[in-house]
Structures are given as structure tokens and as C-alpha cells.
Amino acid sequence: MSKLLMSQLAATNMVYGRFSFDYFLESMKRLGVHNLELYACSPHYHLWDADEDPTPAIKAKIRASGMKIISLMPEENVYPVNIAAREEALRAQTVSLYKRFISAAAELECPQMLLCPGRPYYDQPYWESYAYARDSIEKLTRHAEHEGIVLMYENLNCKESLLATNRFDQMRMVDDICSPWLKCCVDTVPVAAAGETLEEYFQVMGDKLAHIHLNDGRPTGHMKWGDGTQNLDAHLDAMRRHGYTGHITMEMAAGMYMTDPEPHYKKNIETLRVHFDGGEL
Questions:
Q1: How far apart are CA 216 and CA 192, in angstroms?
Q2: Whole-number Å distance between alpha carbons of 278 and 220
Q3: pLDDT tens readout for residues 174-230
Q4: Separate counts of helices (H) and strands (E) for the chain
Q5: What is the pTM of this model?
Q6: Is 204 exposed, middle or buried (0-12, 13-18, 19+ CB in 10 A)?
């Protein structure tokens, strides 16, 4: 089995939404973090935030911090954006926005961007929703190829979307698009919510499983390790068996951490250090 190194870990600003982005960067410095998954959402960074493109300013701050962005994660569940929307105008607006984010990822020297499956109506036939999402993703994948950015299609739980709630539905989209510029990000929270295992995802996806969100939960909740009920070692052993060497984001997002996130991130890192095979952040 391969080894898992602390240098594979990345942190995200998601749970720091009530603090300034400068505070987040200083917090990451105190924790010794070097890899960032940039959550693109107000108030930190979003392409709707200002009349001028905020990308150069955020790039300068991150470069000055000595850190690097390994993944861009535009907010896709709060804003009025939806790649699977029945309404054509909303889908077109969403595709246009995400194309801008793909180009921003290239400017930020970030190799990948996360892409959630969209949020169809619950009374909308699955295949109708799937067709809308596929059309949007085909357009985005072509733009991603042009910019040299890999899109990471992420799984969600059934309360968030009906389109990628298990390993087969998630992989169906990637197989149908069939592009080296579209791969999978697997989040352990919807994995557990579906009653599946990370091992099963590796068996279905192989090397298309190229990014991981490693979070505890009950089974959902995006918690730090120890606050939920998931089996951390089962997740890690699956990564080792399949020789996983990609990045692993600590995507803690539970509201109970938002008023003072740094101690929770510190504890999470300490827990993972015990279960990983060595290395430094």
C-alpha cells in the first residue's frame, strides 16, 4: 500500500466566512498550512463582488502569503446558479459565470475547479435534469480544456441534489462526457449518507477519482474528525490500497465552528497527523 503524507492536505476558507480573508491567511500560517482550496464566495472572493475583477487582488494576497491554490471551489448551492435548471436563461447564466471562474482558475495558477451537479426540481424527471446538466457540463468541459483546467465533478447528498448521490450516478456523467478534463471529487460526507464506502468509489472510478474532501459527519455535517461517526481509517486505507497521491481537502463547514474556526482546524490537523504516514503540511 502507498503512504499518505500530510503534504497532501489542503484547507479551505469556507468556515472562515465571518472573518476577513486576511485573517484566514494569517490563521493558515499559524497552523502551518500551505495548500488552499479557495472557496469562491462573498465576502472573500466572488466574481459578482465588485465592478472590477477581484482575481488579481486575491492572487497577490495568496502569493504574498507563500501559499498556493490547489483547487478553486465556486459557491454553487447558495447563489441563484444552477447548471441543471429547467429554465434555459438560468442555465445559460450559470454556464457563463462558471466559464469566468474556469478562466480565473487559470489566472490563479490553480490546476482544477470543482463542479457540483446542479439542483433539479424534485418533481422533475431524473433524465430531464440529467440532460440539462450534461449539456452545461459539456460546454464547461470544452472551456476548461481551452484554459488547461481540470473540472472535478463532485458528489452531493440527496438533500442537496438528486444527480450525483451515489458512485454510479456520479461516474455516469464523467463517462458520458468522456474527457480527460473532467474527473471526480469525492466527498466522504455524501459517501456515508448513501451508505457507501470510499473503497467502492475507487473500484468504480479508478484514476478518475482525482480529488477528495475528507470530512467526518453523523453521517452528514462536514465536521472535524472526532465530532462525527465515520470511520477515518477505512477512508484512509482505501486511499492507500489504490495508491492515491492527490490532494485531500479538510472541508469543515459546520456552523458550530464558524465563530472560532482555528482551534477546530488545529484539532483536525492533529487528529489526521496521527492517522497519516508522515510528512509535513
A1: 9
A2: 28
A3: 999 999 999 999 999 999 999 999 999 999 999 999 999 999 999 999 999 999 999
A4: 9, 8
A5: 0.97
A6: middle
Cα–Cα separations (whole angstroms), residue 185 to 167, 175, 190, 227: 11, 14, 11, 23
Task: Report d(CA 231, CA 214) in Å as an integer.
Answer: 11
Tell me the residue ranges of DSSP E strands in 126-235. 150-154, 182-187, 209-213
Alpha-carbon distance of 78 to 40, in angstroms, equals 12
Q: Where are the beta strands (DSSP E) in 155-239?
A: 182-187, 209-213
Cβ–Cβ under 8 Å, residues 111 and 144: no
Query: What percent helix, strand, coil does the chain show, rounded to 5?
Result: 45, 15, 40
Give the Cα separation of 278 and 281 in Å (integer): 10
Look at residues 131, 39, 124, 133 and name the one whose alpha carbon lies nearest to residue 82: 133
Only one residue has cell 470530512, namely 215
- Other Cβ atoms less than 10 A from the Cβ of 152: the count is 26
User: What digits encode the pLDDT tens for the residues 154-163?
Assistant: 999 998 999 9
Q: Amino acid identity of 207?
A: D
Phi, psi of 106, rounded to the nearest 5 degrees: -60, -40
Burial of 30 (0-12, 13-18, 19+ CB in 10 A): exposed
**What letter would DSSP give residue 280?**
-
CA distances from 182 to 30, 210, 269 (A): 34, 10, 29
